[in-house]
Amino acid sequence: MAATLTPSFRRILLRAGLLAVAVGGVWSWQHGLAISLHHTAIFTGLALLGTCLGLALFNSRKKLPFLPLLRAATWTQFHIYAGWFSIFLFLLHTGLRWPDGLFESLLASVFTLVALSGVFGLYLSRTLPARLTHHGENVIYERIPALRSKLQRDVEALVLKSVEDTKSCTIADFYATRLKSYFDRPRNFFYYLTRGQAPLKNILSEIRLLERYTNEREHAILAELTECLQAKENLDFQLAGQGLLKYWLFVHIPLTASLLLLGAFHGLLVFYFAGGLR
Amino acid sequence: MKRLQPFDFKSSNYERPNQTWVCGRKDCGDACQLGPDLKGNCRATSECRPRKDGDRWFCTRADARGGKCPDGPRPDGTCCRPIPPCVPRRSVRSRRGIAVLLVSALTLGCIFIALGHSDRDDFFNPGPLTAPHASGAANCALCHTAAQISSGELFKGGLAKSSAHSDSQLCLNCHNFGPRAGEPHNLAPAIRVALTKKIAGPAASSRLAVSVAAEIVPTDASNQLACATCHQEHHGRDADLKKIADASCQVCHTKQFESFASGHPGFDKYPYTRRTRIEFDHAAHIGTYFETAKKSGQTPPTQCNDCHTPASDNRLMVTKGFAANCAACHLDSIIKPGSKGLAVLSIPGLDKKSLDAKTPGIGQWPADADGELTPFMRQLLASDEKTAAALATLKDADLTNLASANPATVAAAEQLAWALKDFFADLITTGHAALQKRLGPSAPAALLGQLPADSLKAFTQTGWWPDLLAEVAAHRAGQPPTKPAPPVAPPAPAATSKPAVTNNNDLLGDDLLGETPKPAPASRPTAPTPTAPKPAATDDLLGDDLLAGPAPTKPAAPSTPKVPTPVAPEKWAATGGWSVSQTDFTLRYKPSGHADAFLQAWLDLTAQAVTTPAKDAPPAAVPVSAAARAIFTQISAASSCVKCHSVDDTPTATGHATALLVNWHAAAPMPQLHTFVKYSHGTHFSLLDEHGCQMCHQLAPNAAASGSSYTAAFKDNHDPLKFKSSFEPLNQATCAQCHVERGAGTSCLLCHNYHVGDIAPAKVKASFSAPTARK
Questions:
Q1: CA angle, A27 then A32 then A37, to 5°
Q2: pLDDT of res. B504
Q3: How do residues B63-104 score in pLDDT, each as one tens digit?
Q4: Nearest CA in chain A to B126
Q5: DSSP per residue, B55-123
């Protein structure tokens, strides 16, 4: 059976197994400490803080690409599994109950947000790249605004050309009243997040309606215009998808910083009031 | 689909998303190649920097930007296509970095604002305190030493002052667990070691987790456990501070086991861990005495609750007391109708003649006194070292015959005589203070206060020592006693022509020998001389009538009215009280019933003087109490108290010795005394079957036969742990019927206390102030 497993699945199994071993080991360790009259919250808290620091190092590692500190993919995998492990440590630390104090509730809330955003980011990183790849032309995120501008200029040139060639302003009017706003800026962000294509379909159906009133030359121009519309829809989709892949970190990373500060202060308070490690 | 993005070398710029700033015209697709500098300043000048080749300038615009422009550079070598400056904007990464800084600053700001806020404690409080603590804990410093450290001290090693143990000391400001509050079970190490040895044995299939955890139990050189090790606060008002896992109990114990039903150490003798405080042989009473009483028409108890009743806390079963349980049969053995009572004070007999001859003299002494010192007197006199030594010397000496005694015995007898006189003189002049001086400051009031002043005066001033005070004063001044005074003729009785006959039982009286009436010795009392007329019929064997032959009939003497004689003191005290016995020179006391305060105080006082050095006691730390033991033995034999009330050896306050303690009461609830096992009879009554109490408390099958074993444990044995119970120990299986995991529960703390010993309730501030005048 092992021969039928793909290498990637075997890797997943291996990592999941390591995670299970770590979870089981820590749970046993915590249980042993608990019944031997140690303050397990202090030890699990230290482990949690250490794990969070380790997780935060992932961002630092990304800023130091020149250092030979393992591959980024390895760091990513470590970050993912250590993240799951930190959620387990958090549950162990809190004893599956929400804290009673204001400060500790704030700390737990921040951790929960960090964890949820991390899980959300993991979901995005596991689903969006494939969708982006299969949706259309892959473009670099930073180039999208420039490409959109270029596309808009191309469309406007096409429309002007249609007026010159066909001596008709049907397409130009349609562009001015209906398409210009579509090309002016990114559109339908939330539709693309939900995989919806209704806006594009609506515009394309309107173009098909327009074909009834245009001649052959205008049909060719409308066909080019349709391609531009599809390219714009792809740019918007890429912008939404890649933007999401970048901007979820605007929640995850700043809150992680806040979490580390609050966690460190929480540790200080505990050390201060509980009389040190016992 | 129309392709928008070229990737060829000439038309595709290299993107650097990690740079902080990007060109402001990037979104328009018209970004300059230079881009902003590191500080975000636009560096745009022109589309190229013309290159001079010889005397001509050439355009250097990149192919990606359209290649060489058709117009070319200006003659002065500048580019003809200047780039209008832009407003650079931050990259996504840079904006994210700023977001991180903002959120971090916001977090730190919130923390510092909270630290400086008046509601700081509320904000950082990790959770509500339990109700008893919440009411009194107004600030953190009440329970946390860390909160008592000023910010100045904090950075000067002040934090080192804070520890779990220092916090525990704050707990002990209110909770009292004695001097060993921090030690496991509040017990001394030696006791813990002894208990460990007692139940030591191989582990009974303990769980792996417990076995492993036992290896990592925190060990502290000081052998101290912080309160917070087990009691964790800030978990809500209704949190159970005493909650602890059963496994946590086991990790410290050498004998680990699976559960109560499997592997729990046996009950051993429980609950009969010591002999009863009151000697009561259940087997003999139920099997013999009650049957006899029934046959004689009495109504003896027929069920357990005739004698036993639950205590107020419903935990312990207590006896209903002497009056309800014992008086019907045993009261007479206490009041002893017809007995004179116990001799408390006495004047012993002394060979005065020998003493006067061999010593400077002992002054007046009743010649008829021939008794011995009472134990009470011995105790009083033994408080003086010289007299104690004298008493030791005179241990086996016959004080009434010192003619052939050695000088040491004579000197001891003289010392005893003067000590005795000194005591009585002291008693007359200072009253109870004389007793307290000799019995010690701890002498109970029941002992001192019950000695009647009138009886004491009567005892010492009956004429046995008419010059006692003068003699003692002279002796204390170092003057020899006055020699016996010349015979003093007793006053002639008013109602008879014959000289008074002294009560010396001299059968050959003065009349018989026809000599001058022999005066009574000066030391003899004169007061008790009867003044009644001599009766007509005397026992004068050689009287006139006998020698004169048949006597002529005498005229009948006129009838004399019979004068009633006062009741004898002993008769007066027949139902209890004090009496002075003129015949044996004693002051006697007779108890009027059970629980007599005087006897109780007397026995307590003498018992506590009977000490036994502990094994590890330093030399001379405990006074030798052989004499005290003898006194206690005499007193306990004279009184019938210890016939039922057992006497235990109990540790003294110093711990260097044990002293005797009379158990005046049967086992009674002691709410402050926490033992390892806790049990409530009240909660188990509903579980009793047709056997009732005997469902658990079964008389031993051979209890009647071994009754002597039960009573033997009370004879000359002061160790309460050496005993033989009349009952079988509890059967553990009986408890395990209900106490299972899903039944009545098997938690360790269900039946066991962790803290043992005398645990007082939480201390309260009980100070009061004087009332102030109301305005």
A1: 125
A2: 39
A3: 777 788 888 999 999 999 888 889 999 999 899 999 999 999
A4: A101
A5: TEEE----GGGTSS-SS---TTS--SSBPPP---EE-HHHHHHHHHHHHHHHHHHHHHHHHHSTTHHHH
Contact B407, B440 (CB under 8 A): no
Categorise residue B518: left if φ over 0, alpha if ψ from -120 to 50, beta otherwise: beta
In 3D space, the residue among B400, B284, B310 whose CA is nearest the CA of residue B353 turns out to be B400
For B163, which of A39, A138, A275 is closest by C-beta distance?
A275
Residue with tokens 């745009």: B44
Please report the DSSP string for B224-270 in residue order.
---GGGT----S-TT--TT---HHHHHHHSSS-BSBTTTBPPP-TTT
- Please report whether residue A278 resides in a domain: no
Residues A151 and A194 placed together within one structural domain of the fold: yes
State how many domains chain A has: 2
For the question of whether the overall pTM of this predicted structure is more than 0.80, the answer is no
What is the largest distance, in Å, between two alpha-carbon atoms of chain B? 200
Size of interface A-B (CB pairs under 8 A): 172
CA B124 to chain CA centroid, Å, is 41
- Residue A84 belongs to some domain of the structure: yes
Token pair recorded at residue A158: 């096409």
Q: Tell me what pLDDT residue B510 has.
A: 37
The answer to whether residues B44 and B65 touch, using CB atoms and an 8 Å cutoff, is no
Residues 6+ apart with CB under 8 A from A199: A187, A188, A191, A233
B27 touches chain A (CB under 8 A): yes
DSSP class of residue B602 equals H
Compare CB distances from B2 to A231, A253, A257 and report the shortest one's residue.
A231
3-state secondary structure A73-124: HHHHHHHHHHHHHHHHHHHHHHCCCCCCCHHHHHHHHHHHHHHHHHHHHHHH
| Greatest C-alpha distance within chain A | 92
**What is d(CA B703, CA B714) in angstroms, rounded to the nearest whole number?**
16
**A202 exposed, middle or buried (CB, 10 Å; 0-12, 13-18, 19+)?**
exposed
The SS3 assignment for B577 reads: strand
- Put simply, whether B748 touches A (Cβ < 8 Å) is no
CB contact under 8 A, A142 and B100: no
Is A193 in contact with A182 (CB distance < 8 Å)?
Answer: no
Confidence of residue B620 (pLDDT cuts 50, 70, 90): low
- Residue in the block written with tokens 């007898």: B413
A57 with A74, same domain?
yes
| Shared domain check, A205 and A258 | no
Q: Is B579 helix (H, G, I), strand (E, B) or coil?
A: strand
Task: Please state, in angstroms and rounded to a whole number, the distance separating the CA atoms of residues B559 and B176.
Answer: 83
* Domain residue limits, chain B: 1-90, 342-482+568-590, 597-662
Beta-bridge partners for B660: B649
| DSSP code, position B158 | G
B315 and chain A: CB distance < 8 Å anywhere? Answer: no
Judge if the upstream peptide bond of residue B271 is cis by omega within 30 degrees of 0: yes
Question: Do B1 and A146 make contact, defined as CB atoms within 8 angstroms?
Answer: no
Cα angle value B96/B98/B100 (rounded, 5°): 70
pLDDT(B498) > 60: no
- Residue B251 and residue B214 in contact, taking contact as beta carbons nearer than 8 Å: yes
Q: What's the Rg (C-alpha) of chain A?
A: 27
Q: Indicate whether A135 belongs to any domain.
A: no
- The residue range of the domain holding A196 is 141-244
